[in-house]
Amino acid sequence: MPDKAEALGILLVLLPGFASAYVVHMLAVRRKKSDLEKIVEALLFSLLFYLVTLPFFSNTLPIGWRPMDNHPDIYQVTVIWKHLAALAGLALVFGVVYAANINHDWLMSFFRWIKVTDRSSRSTIWNDAFQDPDLDGYVQVGLSGDRNVIGWVNDYSDEEGSFELLLGDAAWVERDGRLQPIKGPGILITNEARIEYVMFLDQDEADGSDSPEQTS
Q1: Architecture of domain 125-214
Q2: If DSSP codes are grouped into helix, strand and coil, which group holds residue 10?
Q3: 110-128: pLDDT as tens digits
């Protein structure tokens, strides 16, 4: 068995799982994993992909080698491109679907429904709250220094330990409850502002007189 062919074979065996894990990492926000956990996950992905594809390709790997008839010390390497294409497509599709599952919490929602767990697939309660479609809308944010601002959540930080919000249609909330609209498209609240709480407003309240766009 040639060393180069053996190394290439190992690479092709491992690559689909690592490629899929990279797609998941790029599209989904998850709890931080150790390097060992990342490697184990990628290896499990590769094992799954080969279990799915091998029966369709005569239970052979996508690369093979055999000695040439006239030169037994020289090996001829053959690549099954259809098998490689199937693995690449499966890795991409699985990565996208698995990332969507994490972002939308599909699988863990089912397990919570059958009372197996109370956990979420999302990385923090911060991400869990802002990715919940039932909480989508206007929020009132309490900042350090007894300051309050209200607005529509346009974007939010998704990195663990970072608590930042981009609010559109925003206004400062005065001490007497009146709203002072912020001129411009919105306000970016950074970590330096020290968010103390986020109050999710009912849709009726957001559409009523308390919303920034209807209060002068």
Answers
A1: Roll (2.30)
A2: helix
A3: 999 999 998 888 888 898 8
